[in-house]
Design goal:
alpha/beta; 2 domains; six-stranded parallel β-sheet; 46% helix; disordered N terminus
């Protein structure tokens, strides 16, 4: 397995590589939208996401959050516990951010009700804590790799929710190293975060593979750091064909496959 790279180390992304992430966030927003009588839940989803992006980008240290790959919808439910001091301002602002987003989104929908904004914010957090299911083949791949190579997980996002999502998979103990951008203060595609993960695994870039769904952060980041890569395309067209990139539609396709 993993012929051609010697598979000394395999590093996996988490969100939308091993688990369903964005679709769960949208589902949670839709469920919150269903609490609004007379409003189209699909419209609520788009209004909240658009509002969240606008307010998030105007908030403190957006450039840092962008470098760490922390998305606006993650800010709607993260506490940022376990984060380094560089994220203190974001952590302190997060409760006000959540309230501002929901109030502004309701205003866009023609509703002025701060108490309802709080209700919807709390509902979204509750729904997000309901779990993020594993993608097809993810658990099988991890269990197959465990013990056969040095296995790491490298994910961008707030420390608290990434740990929560990982713990929910039941796979956390399978990884020899878990590196989260919101814990270490650097994120993909920065070569330093790949180097940190390799260092914790005791592995070398030349014999390591990064598996992820983000072309820019996972794939190009890995190549810049000297690793090979496997892109989980989920049906998207390949931006660029390269000999050291394997393309699969879903992570389960890597089981038994050489790359």
């Amino acid at each position: 397995m993993f012929a051609g790279v010697a598979s000394a180390a395999v590093i996996l992304d988490l969100d939308d590589t091993l688990i369903v992430e964005e679709a769960v966030a949208r589902s949670s927003l839709r469920r919150a939208g269903e609490l609004l009588q007379g409003k189209d839940p699909a419209e609520v989803v788009e209004v909240v996401l658009t509002t969240a992006r606008r307010i998030w980008r105007a908030g403190p240290d957006y450039s840092l959050c962008h470098r760490l790959g922390i998305a606006s919808w993650e800010g709607l439910w993260a506490t940022f516990e376990g984060s380094p001091s560089v994220l203190d301002d974001v952590r302190d602002w997060a409760p006000a951010y959540r309230q501002e987003v929901w109030r502004a989104a309701l205003a866009e929908l023609g509703i002025d009700d701060p108490a309802l904004a709080t209700t919807l914010s709390d509902a979204y957090v509750e729904y997000q804590h309901g779990g993020h299911p594993l993608l097809a083949g993810a658990a099988e791949l991890v269990h197959l790799l465990e013990g056969r190579c040095q296995l790491g997980l490298l994910t961008n996002g707030p420390a608290d929710i990434q740990r929560l999502k990982l713990d929910g998979t039941g796979l956390a103990a399978s990884f020899g190293a878990v590196v989260i951008s919101g814990e270490v203060g650097i994120g993909k595609p920065d070569p330093d975060v790949f180097a940190l993960t390799l260092s914790r695994l005791g592995a070398q870039a030349a014999s390591a593979v990064m598996v992820g769904d983000s072309w820019e952060r996972d794939i190009l980041g890995a190549l810049d750091a000297g690793l090979s890569a496997a892109w989980v395309s989920a049906g998207r067209p390949v931006p660029e064909r390269r000999p050291n990139i394997t393309v699969v539609d879903g992570v389960g396709e890597l089981i038994g496959r050489s790359f």
